[in-house]
Amino acid sequence: MAKCDVCDKGKHFGSKVSHSNRKTNRAWKPNIRKVKVVDKGTSKTINICAKCLRSNKVTRAV
């Protein structure tokens, strides 16, 4: 499941375009990490994207 539990970032769809301008379908997936975080005093594991992790939207469990 490529979806961030914090910001709901998920798959995006578009077209791969070759040099001869042929178009085929493709998908872009976010950089999802499985991380232990502290939520309301308890630690739990969530799926979070690298952008949310870098911007300190959650506090990591030690």
UniProtKB/TrEMBL annotation:
Coiled-coil residue spans: none
GO biological process, one term: translation
GO cellular component: ribonucleoprotein complex; ribosome
Keyword Transcription regulation attributed: no
Pfam family, one: Ribosomal_L28
Gene Ontology molecular function, alphabetical: structural constituent of ribosome
Keyword Ribonucleoprotein: yes
Entry keywords, A to Z: Ribonucleoprotein, Ribosomal protein
Annotated family: Belongs to the bacterial ribosomal protein bL28 family.
Protein name, as recorded: Large ribosomal subunit protein bL28
